[in-house]
Amino acid sequence: xxxxxxxxxxxxxxxxxxxxxxxxxxxxxxxxxxxxxxxxxxxxxxxxxxxxxxxxxxxxxxxxxxxxxxxxxxxxxxxxxxxxxxxxxxxxxxxxxxxxxxxxxxxxxxxxxxxxxxxxxxxxxxxxxxxxxxxxxxxxxxxxxxxxxxxxxxxxxxxxxxxxxxxxxxxxxxxxxxxxxxxxxxxxxxxxxxxxxxxxxxxxxxxxxxxxxxxxxxxxxxxxxxxxxxxxxxxxxxxxxxxxxxxxxxxxxxxxxxxxxxxxxxxxxxxxxx
Length: 274
Description:
By secondary structure, the chain is α/β, with parallel strands linked by helices. Helices cover 34% and strands 24% of the residues. The protein is built from eleven helices and 16 strands. An eight-stranded mixed β-sheet has the order 5-4-3-2-1-14-15-16. A six-stranded mixed β-sheet has the order 9-8-7-11-13-12. The chain has a two-stranded antiparallel ribbon with strand order 6-10.
């Protein structure tokens, strides 16, 4: 898996990849990422998370300057504190998504560049939506509103919307109700549906960042574990799956590293660069 000087950038998924199962950073992973950064390699977040949801990790890993956030809809520079690229979905799509979420008594989540918005009464029982591990973060960081349909009407455009369903069956039905819209879709977590504007993926966001940095996609490494990493892993010069990754993701990648609870990201970095 050694790449010598061929690769200039590593795009790293967060949940299930960079983070351990308890959503913390392994000190060994921090050390390995810092080692790559010290060699002039850009190590960047590639995540469905919003900027506000990354801030605590950026404080631990300030060498990771850039994020391909919101599943590729936003590229953010933490050093300059500004977006490099942003692609929005329309207000009409936002309103339709929120209506479908209500139809299935699911939890809609609006993700803007600097706002993360949910319904106030749903945050206290996120385990019902298979999202219990994120509840402390949501209680700390989200804007909580009484009525999501009213809130949806306030936004002419937004980069990303998630729906957290109560079951995979509800998610499948919700997807069928929304698939006619001009959106990109990804299944995530237990029963989550992630949506961006048509054509937006982690790959499209990474391309925007590489153009900004003057790096070719052939000079990039991608590390991920799940379906929402697929486009990125298919687009990079070297694709690496986590040991805990989905079977089909492991099958499509050039290499497989250790799992996220055993510093799989650091293991990959050392094998490629050192």
